[in-house]
Amino acid sequence: MGQETRGVVESVKDAIIGSIKGSGEIVNAVVETVSGSLVNVIKRTGSVGTALTTTVSDVLRGAILGTAQIGGDVAMAAKGALLGVLRGTKEVGGQAMETIGASASAVVKTTAEVGGDVGAAAKNAVEGAIIGAKEVGLNAEEAASAAATGAIKGAGEISSAAVEEVRKAVTGVIAGVKVVVKEPFR
Predict the structure, then answer these.
(1) 38: left (phi over 0), alpha (psi -120 to 50) or beta
(2) pTM (2 decimals)?
(3) Please, which residues have CB within 8 angstroms of residue 103's CB and are 6 or more apart in sequence?
(4) 52 lies in some domain
(5) Predicted local distance difference test score (pLDDT) of residue 75
(6) Exposure string for 113-149, b = 16+ CB within 10 A, e = fewer
(7) In this structure, what are the phi and psi dihedrals at residue 24, rounded to the nearest 5 degrees?
(8) Is 91 part of any domain?
């Protein structure tokens, strides 16, 4: 992990801890912290393309780690994370669907790392993507599909059991939107 990455992860983690402790509210704390952090990092570094997905992954890793560290609900943080990514990247531009997929993948992997429920995190990430897409004027079905596909891809880096758990969690209708997983996603 490079110095820049460690700095982003740690600063977001610290901000999340402070925000949740201050408000006691996880989803909004994560949305605001993720969105603000992304805007700041992207403006500072000019991240686009692959650099943007790396930045998003670092920010979300910090958000999940911070939430877990204070015993917060990681699945609710996953929802706020995707919503925050959409708000943050909308403000500075960026390839939305690619970013949504990378975000859901990062959330699932970090949730597994902290011993959280990857299925619940994946489902909440998809829900956050749907809400965020509607809010910023993107297609909710495409956002749901990108998030579900990304979540399964992230689970694929954990185990086959995680893939099955995530696939079950993100299949069907979430927040009134039919979720379609794009396969193969290798």
Answers:
(1) alpha
(2) 0.91
(3) 56, 57, 60, 81, 82, 85, 125, 129, 147, 150
(4) yes
(5) 96
(6) eeebbbbbbbbbbbbbbbbbbbeeebebebbbbbbbb
(7) 75, 5
(8) yes
Domain membership flag for residue 99: yes
Tens of pLDDT, residues 142-169: 999 999 999 999 999 999 999 999 999 9
For 35-48, the pLDDT digits (tens) are: 999 988 888 888 77
- CA 9/CA 13 separation, integer angstroms: 6
Residue 184, in any domain of the structure = no
The range of the structural domain enclosing residue 153 comes to 3-179
Q: How many domains does the chain have?
A: 1
